[in-house]
Design brief:
The strands form two sheets. A nine-stranded mixed β-sheet has the order 14-13-12-11-7-10-9-8-15. It is built from nine helices and 15 strands. The protein has 328 residues and is α/β, with parallel strands linked by helices.
Length: 328
């Protein structure tokens, strides 16, 4: 099996997860790294035994000197458009960290650029590829509990990231909730029509922007979804996937601490066997990216589809900012 070569932009922070994933892959290998922090590059070269001769402070220099098939974009959202479009213009396929961009316009520009180039553009919505997600989706799709009518998703965490996330206006919605919004579409196999809600920042918050939110999404088929979340929780945290309650015509499907339970109406909830596959998270994403590049297949989280999840993000921002119901 011949590997495809990728340039990774951003090797600190979340970039470390991709360094590990690529290093363990039998299908993808790094040909170059790009990062503005020389110290981080030096540290990671030593850790991964990677040649500093293939490390660069700018993407343009890397594109001029290296031969690659694709690029992994692990930069902050405000840089996604410039990095992804430069790669696409150079003839590379792109696997971008979420969110796809820092605005719908920028994200749409990237998607259109990829489509014009005939290149793969894939977004790293890795929460789709976890055991709890597969189990929720397949349990609901079985039809055993009937059609869903109302859903509640609770997410409470208190991470101290430092860096750009703690300076964002709506850090939870833009940087984290994109995962849960994308899961709503994936698990429920439906798209939202409108969103309303409000956000706030608790007095003890270490974020500059609102780190807590309550949202109401109106989905297709009269399906309602309530989302309660906070990134400055002080205890009793949920998992990163959140806790889910899906009320259906003939019963209920639940997840708590990443274990799924289900019950027909009148019965007690029982745990559901895991439906996960061999690959998960970034490992799954990288494999799907490899197949898209080598076989021309369309990845599930391709850019055009991801715009629907991203519209939920910026629709939610507009809703809490204006106090209005925002059509999606």
């Amino acid at each position: 099996m011949s590997k495809i070569g990728v340039i990774q932009v951003g090797v600190g922070g979340m970039g470390q997860t991709w360094l590990k994933t690529v290093a363990a892959s039998e299908e993808v290998e790094h040909v170059a790294w790009v990062d503005v922090d020389e110290q981080v590059l030096e540290e990671k070269c030593k850790e991964y035994h990677f040649s500093p001769h293939h490390c660069y402070a700018s993407l343009q220099e890397a594109l001029q000197k290296e031969e690659a098939d694709g690029l992994i974009n692990v930069t902050p959202p405000q840089y996604h458009k410039a990095i992804s479009c430069a790669a696409l213009e150079a003839g590379l396929h792109v696997l971008s960290e979420k969110p796809l961009a820092d605005s719908i316009k920028s994200a749409t520009d990237i998607v259109e650029r990829a489509e014009e180039a005939g290149a793969t553009l894939m977004v790293a919505q890795n929460y789709r590829y976890r055991d709890v997600t597969a189990t929720l989706r397949e349990t609901l799709a079985s039809g055993r509990y009937g059609a869903p009518g109302q859903v509640q998703v609770n997410f409470f965490k208190g991470p101290h990231f430092g860096g750009f996330r703690e300076k964002m206006d709506y850090p939870l919605i833009i940087d984290m909730s994109i995962h849960h919004f994308d899961l709503m579409r994936y698990i429920l196999d439906a798209d939202p029509k409108a969103v309303s809600g409000y956000s706030w920042n608790p007095q003890w918050s270490w974020f500059a922007g609102d780190a807590s939110v309550c949202l109401f999404f109106e989905f297709e088929n009269a399906l309602s979804v309530v989302y309660n979340g906070s990134w400055c929780s002080t205890g009793a945290e949920t998992s990163w996937n959140g806790d889910w309650r899906i009320e259906c015509e003939k019963g209920v499907i639940l997840s708590h601490d990443d274990t799924v339970y289900a019950a027909k109406t009148g019965d007690s909830p029982q745990s559901v066997a895991s439906k996960g596959g061999k690959r998960s998270n970034q490992t799954y994403l990288l494999h799907e990216f490899y197949e898209a590049v080598t076989e021309g297949s369309l990845p599930a989280t391709h850019g055009r589809d991801n715009l629907k999840s991203l519209r939920m993000v910026f629709g939610a921002v507009e809703a809490v900012r204006t106090g209005k119901v925002i059509e999606l």
